[in-house]
Automatic annotation (TrEMBL):
HAMAP family: PSII_Psb28
GO CC terms in record: chloroplast thylakoid membrane; photosystem II oxygen evolving complex
Alphabetical GO biological process terms: photosynthesis
Protein name: Photosystem II reaction center Psb28 protein
Membrane topology: Peripheral membrane protein
Annotated organism of origin: Triticum urartu (Red wild einkorn)
Gene3D superfamilies (alphabetical): Photosystem II Psb28
Domain of life: Eukaryota
Family assignment from sequence similarity: Belongs to the Psb28 family.
Length: 129
């Protein structure tokens, strides 16, 4: 998603946006996830699994509605999936897991660009196991 802003009499300019993750469109998730990545040996596909412990979406979902998907938003646009599940402990929501599947090398590259931006904005680092 690219935002454009036009001041009276001035040409349009791009406004930088902070990368965000959302479960409800328009509401940024405040909890920083743990992320696990797998990639096929030939590099043609991969999977990213995001795990959120006590995500803030549970605090706001009563007013804003249900989780509608998993949205990763940055200056290039939006990556999304509907593969989202919630874990409950003693009847209360405790964790959300989202799975994002990358089917091509291009999908993988785009995802990694998002993660680089998101990581820089949120103080995450990549650790290879």
């Amino acid at each position: 998603m690219v935002l454009w802003e036009r001041a009276a009499g001035w040409p349009a300019r791009v406004v930088a946006m902070k990368p965000a993750i959302q479960f409800i469109q328009g509401t940024d998730e405040q909890t920083i996830p743990d992320v696990r990545l797998t990639k096929s040996r030939d590099g043609t596909n991969g999977v990213a699994i995001f795990e959120f412990d006590q995500p803030s979406v549970f605090d706001s979902s009563a007013e804003l509605g249900d989780i509608t998907g998993f949205y990763m938003i940055d200056e290039e646009g939006m990556l999304q999936t509907v593969d989202v599940s919630a874990k409950f402990v003693n009847g209360k929501p405790a964790r959300v897991e989202a799975k994002y599947v990358m089917r091509t090398a291009g999908d993988w590259d785009r995802f990694m660009r998002f993660m680089e931006r998101y990581s820089q904005a949120n103080g995450l680092q990549f650790v290879k196991n």
